[in-house]
Fold this sequence. Notes:
Elements: H1 13-21, E1 24-28, H2 31-39, E2 45-50, H3 59-73, E3 77-82, H4 104-111, H5 114-118, E4 132-135, H6 137-140, H7 145-152, H8 157-161, H9 164-171, H10 179-194, E5 198-202, H11 206-219, E6 225-229, H12 256-264, H13 271-278, H14 283-294, H15 299-315, H16 317-331, E7 342-345, H17 351-357, H18 364-372, E8 376-378, E9 383-384, E10 396-400, E11 404-410
Parallel strand pairs: 2-3, 2-5, 3-4, 5-6, 7-11
Antiparallel strand pairs: 1-6, 8-9, 8-10, 10-11
Helix pairs in contact: 1-2, 10-11, 12-15, 12-16, 13-15, 15-16
Amino acid sequence: MPRTATPQISVDKEKINELLTRSVDTIYPGRDALRELLLSGKQITVYVGIDPTADYVHLGHSTNYLLLERLHQLGHRIIVLVGDFTAMIGDPSDKTTARGALTRKEVLANLKTFKAQIGKILDFKDKKNPIEFKFNRTWLSKLSFEKIAELASNFTVQQMLERDMFAKRVREHAPLYVHEFLYPLLQGYDSVAMKVDLEIGGTDQTFNMLAGRTLVRRYLGREKFVLTTTLLVNPTTGEKMMSKSLGTGIGLNESAENMFGKTMALPDPGIIQTFIDCTRLPMAEIKKKEQRLARGENPKNLKLELAHEIVTMYHGARAADAAQANWENVFSDKKIPDAMPTVRAKAGTKLIDVLVTQKIAESKTQARRLFEEGAIKDLDRDQKITDPNTEVTGDATLKIGKKTFLKIKAL
């Protein structure tokens, strides 16, 4: 995308302070150094990368895009990078086993709606300061083996083994594959190829982003800032509240009803952090909500406000009102919702495949567990479905767990 004239850069101290503190975990080499750069009035190039390991972007990713939005509003150059090449290697971040690599066909299938989903947050139509959408296959597919060997010479095996997940595998004598060492090298080279000043990502990406910092200093002879954002975790259990691999993400492409219901299913201890990381509400308002919780108000009230705010961001206020009314009708009055996702399936299709296709279960293993636990009920026949080999024989209205409904139209 051609660049227009450099827009006027805002050095609003209050906005910059929020930028450097809200949803921020750590800044390398330091917060004060980045503040000084942002106050200089110079336009900087910033990017966030995402690998298309699933066909949806979830609410946990929105933290990074909301931060990009704040930087864009200050006038800085923004790049959204899709790791269509690195996804075929498999990011080992936060993994105690090797992540399965994707085929080119799987990557392209997952990419189909990425821009539209991210565009629910970022303004890709801004012509004065256009946001760029790039793919790292553009340069990574052209790297020679000689160049890859040169990149590798900037790191030691000891540095690679400092990664927690790698060290754990070594201790447990679990497989650690050579190609997994290549991932941070290639992600790091993205920063060189795009000549960025700042990279933003979750704390699970720290090692990869710092590899880029090393390579920028090596090849461009200057500093690259790294800003790690807080991950949405349950403060009580420490478990991620949003994960594509665990199937717990709330997709930005979800219907208003699903988005509302899944938000209401989030653990109570994570309410305030979700307000901070996933909404545009001013921090002063979020502080008031935190005080209400501290005074003993029912967390359900705050969660209803959270769900309404999130659905409004992606579907509008009217859809949020309708989704809330539907949720209260179903879960307060124990009724079947008037509106629910509907899927058409051929007679003879295994129900377990329908659940995976509709992302109600992330995998067949997870879907099979739902059957075995008696979590699937055919409301039309008022009976539980416990056999994972059950096939679609006719129309059915299903309740999966406590809060998910699905209508099946047999073909």
